[in-house]
């Protein structure tokens, strides 16, 4: 049994149940788990750890690629298994534990966790739990639908637990390109100079002696929870495409554009979906996650290839992807997130970065993470890796939330994840503000008039005019700068009462 | 005359006065001028432009490396010559014009201006004005005490004006290493894998036909305006050194440390000066500017070599440097600021980044630029290039300013240049907060207890405790988050009245 999945016969003796494997953990350990945007996460060990924690204390530092599927994050958090969590999550139950202060959450740039582990800035990983489609004859671990930080975890962990998922087809083998930079300061250049390139191995190399357990699973990734587009996301897509057409016309890029990155979620997915009706051809993606839209663009032929660290699809698109894997395998590369998001590579390739803002202010500072300035939503993810180092940094958002009670365009961002220095273009369904080469006072006018919801424009204009009385590079009325957020908490809306 | 300085005889005919050269400009042009932290700036053309603006409208977009010396920025701004300015400045008169809204100031990461010019995100440079020690036989421009963006300006400008400064010794030739990355997206790796390495040419290559004027000058750079250290900067230096000793002891780096970067200014200079009494040996610098302290460390032998984009010294140290140039030439490399600050190189080498904060908040967000959240001080400079991409990012500040009326540790930064994601260590004269791997709630306690001035700790604790009642990943009382800054404006102090 499983000879095609476990091709090194001596490892057969490491086959065990998840319950047995869960005994390899000890209270206080640091655990690295595969999984990135609900793709390629371990399916059995999280539940086994929850079960173990019913009987004895088991508090872990849990590091992943990004968010886990299968409610694993929430189940482990609710069981008290997760003491510390990094670098990203998107689970409602875990989010509650984070915001109540029960779980310490370290919100990191997705390219940096591996670097901090390597440098010793973070405690080393004790146990790695990696979902795989197979273990090769020489002990290589072939990942499933994401790579994330798995290679780094395997490199560092004293014990490696491999979950072989029979639901992940063997045909995924060959999709991955595993390359890790050498430790600093003696590191060479990362030899990746175009999105297509493969620079590593197709499996994660590991000394087989460190494989402490192999657990068989047979369940699919959680499907993407991106919602279908709507009139507003269509409008945002239209503004983005018109802007990019302008860039091509101005000679700043060719009709193949520059390599595209798009963040996780509904709006970015809808914008990419909108590219199907665009005039661009032979595009490439150099992103961290591929959603349904990327597959659609590969199918339409407009996207020549796509590089990422994870593939997160709807159930229907997942089946289509698996059914046509032979075809996609030549046009998709899955890399460690350290490489998909690496500043060196992102800067070199000149990425167009498209990410979602929770809110932004009239000067172009972006909040990607904190609802009301205090409560964590998901995390910054890779948005900073791409926005800082790409050639063009676009942030998109609907202009209002909660039926208009919240304006996404505010006087001052209540939390800043991306500073004015890193934001080139802001887009809502109302329009686009091209901030390149503009000073804050010039940006304010554009952002208010092009991006804000018309219901909020008068009070934004009034704020800005009052702020101008105090002068400055970035005029503000500090007493009122965060008053909109405070008003929402007390009055249920950011809208000011009519004068 | 000048045969040693102008080695291509045909160019002798381009010799002219600054007044004549000033006629090459037209109203509305974009001008790229050499100069970085008061070093290597053009000495004659700024005054000639001011003179010309007395008689006719002359409003320019002025792009430099960083700050100019000789009051040039202020004189040009006061004469109305500067309509737009980027990417950095430090002049009192220009600052007033910026904060009054008369000059549009675009505050940029110092590595990015060149990239934006190359990509066409900024309007191209019409005229470049470059201080040089010589023009070579093949038309190469040999820069003086800084490289900055000069090579990029020369590459792009239709007309190049060279100021040959006789006060800058010919012996500076050979100090520089001029390398520019290719345009994206077809760019290879930057082949620089250690701080010592030379990867380019010793002069800026230019088609001699584009050299439109050569102006002779004979005046020195403005001396550094860094103040001598004091008891507080000594204490900060002590905390930084003890921290670095801990890193060596923990095995996270060797006794040569990692390549050091230190920002411009009094505190960073004093911290580096403090390294003379440290146990570290064979250190290297990979920084953007070398101050007196770098020369002292080269003299003491602790610093093996230093790479930067500029050398800004006190008058006395400048003379010492010139007198011993043959010795230093083997141990100093001056690079374009795009390379000295390049994310690719900074990340690869694993820089220790040491930069100055104006203020920081209890969660680790840093304001480097805006006094009171609104008024520009100097600009972000290269701090973001290094803090984001280096291995360790330290920010230093005295705990209070204005005789204690302003706390540098505040509930919420009134402007954010460096987010919590990019700040590893905070230091004041009171102590050091090592934030690595910590969640915001954990950071708050450390920052308040280790870094804040004791006079402000009670009210910081009270703020944090009240904020905790509202919960969240990053607890805040939005109504009070910026109240300290507002109180300073009305009451002249951030200190709360005794209850």
From TrEMBL, chains A, B:
- Which GO biological process categories is it annotated with? acetate metabolic process; acetyl-CoA metabolic process
The record, for InterPro entries, names: AcetylCoA_hyd_C (IPR026888), AcetylCoA_hyd_C_sf (IPR038460), ActCoA_hydro (IPR046433), ActCoA_hydro_N (IPR003702), NagB/RpiA_transferase-like (IPR037171), Succinate_CoA_transferase (IPR017821)
Residues annotated to bind CoA: 378, 382, 402
Q: Which GO terms describe its molecular function?
A: acetate CoA-transferase activity; acetyl-CoA hydrolase activity
- Quote any Pfam family the record assigns: AcetylCoA_hydro
Q: What is the active site of this protein? A: 288
| Acetyl-CoA hydrolase/transferase C-terminal domain boundaries | 319-463
Provide the Acetyl-CoA hydrolase/transferase N-terminal domain boundaries: 11-215
The alphabetical list of record keywords is: Transferase
Q: Which NCBIfam families match?
A: YgfH_subfam
What family is reported?
Belongs to the acetyl-CoA hydrolase/transferase family.
Q: What is this protein called?
A: Succinyl-CoA:acetate CoA-transferase
Q: What is the lineage of its organism?
A: Bacteria, Pseudomonadati, Pseudomonadota, Betaproteobacteria, Burkholderiales
């Amino acid at each position: 049994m499983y000879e095609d999945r476990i091709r090194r016969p001596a490892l057969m003796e490491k086959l065990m149940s998840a319950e047995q494997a869960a005994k390899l953990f000890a209270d206080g350990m640091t655990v690295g788990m595969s999984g990135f945007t609900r793709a390629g996460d371990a399916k059995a060990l999280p539940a086994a750890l929850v079960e173990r924690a019913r009987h004895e204390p088991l508090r872990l530092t849990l590091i992943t690629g990004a968010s886990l599927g299968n409610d694993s994050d929430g189940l482990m958090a609710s069981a008290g298994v997760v003491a510390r969590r990094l670098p990203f999550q998107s689970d409602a139950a875990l989010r509650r534990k984070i915001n109540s202060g029960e779980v310490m959450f370290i919100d990191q740039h997705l390219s940096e966790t591996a670097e901090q582990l390597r440098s010793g800035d973070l405690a080393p990983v004790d146990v790695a739990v990696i979902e795989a489609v197979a273990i090769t004859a020489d002990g290589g671990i072939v990942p499933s639908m994401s790579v994330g930080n798995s290679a780094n975890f395997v490199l560092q962990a004293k014990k490696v637990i491999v979950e072989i998922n029979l639901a992940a087809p063997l045909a995924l083998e060959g999709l991955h390109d595993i390359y890790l930079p050498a430790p600093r300061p003696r590191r060479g250049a990362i030899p990746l100079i175009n999105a297509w390139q493969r620079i590593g191995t197709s499996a994660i190399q590991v000394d087989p002696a460190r494989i402490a357990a192999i657990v068989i699973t047979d369940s699919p990734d959680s499907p993407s929870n991106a919602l279908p587009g709507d009139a507003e996301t269509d409008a945002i897509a239209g503004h983005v495409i018109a802007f990019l057409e302008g860039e091509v016309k101005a000679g700043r890029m060719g009709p193949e554009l520059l390599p595209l990155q798009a963040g996780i979620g509904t709006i970015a997915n809808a914008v990419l979906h909108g590219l199907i009706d665009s005039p661009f051809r032979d595009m490439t993606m150099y992103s961290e996650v591929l959603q349904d839209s990327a597959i659609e663009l590969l199918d339409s032929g407009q996207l020549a290839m796509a590089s990422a660290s994870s593939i997160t699809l709807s159930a229907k698109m997942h089946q289509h992807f698996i059914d046509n894997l032979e075809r996609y395998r030549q046009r998709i590369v899955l890399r460690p997130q350290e490489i998909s998001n690496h500043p060196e590579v992102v800067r070199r390739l000149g990425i167009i970065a498209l990410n979602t803002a929770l809110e932004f202010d009239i000067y172009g500072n972006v909040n990607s993470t904190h609802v009301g300035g205090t409560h964590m939503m998901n995390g910054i993810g890779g948005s900073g890796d791409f926005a800082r180092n790409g050639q063009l940094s676009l942030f998109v958002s609907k202009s209002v939330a909660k039926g208009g009670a919240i304006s996404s365009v505010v006087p001052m961002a209540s939390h800043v994840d991306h500073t004015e220095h890193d934001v080139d273009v802001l887009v809502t369904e109302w329009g686009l503000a091209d901030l390149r080469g503009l000073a804050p006072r010039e940006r304010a006018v554009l952002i208010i008039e092009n991006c804000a919801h018309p219901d909020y424009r008068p009070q934004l204009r009034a704020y800005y005019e009052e702020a101008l009385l105090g002068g400055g590079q970035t005029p503000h009325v500090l007493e009122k700068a965060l008053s909109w957020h405070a008003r929402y908490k007390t009055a249920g809306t950011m809208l000011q009462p009519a004068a």
